[in-house]
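User: Show me a protein chain along with its predicted structure.
Assistant: Here is one chain, sequence first, then structure tokens.
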Amino acid sequence: MEVFKENICITGAEAITTIGNGNFINLLKRNIINNIAGKAHYGNPALYPVDSFPQKYRVLLYSAYPELSDEENRRELVEEQNAILRNILPDPKAHEFFKTYEKLPGIHLSPQEQTKYY
């Protein structure tokens, strides 16, 4: 369970253990639930917003993970995640390094690439 883009999300593995593999795949095929975290790969699981699940399955998820259903806990979880993100400061040394970094001789990183890496 994570907060992603202001949504309380659950991983595919957590959802499958709760609602079953067949039901989960059926929801995916019918586009009822969608991965909002981009491509899933090792170390970066697919995340599905709990609110996008049909009511029938949301009840099962809330019973398996009680912290999802409590509005106070949800608000705290979102605030905690936002506080962590607010405290991440850019590193001036990294900024200087990527500003002068050359991919190839004479070819520098674009401003978008620079901000991506520091």
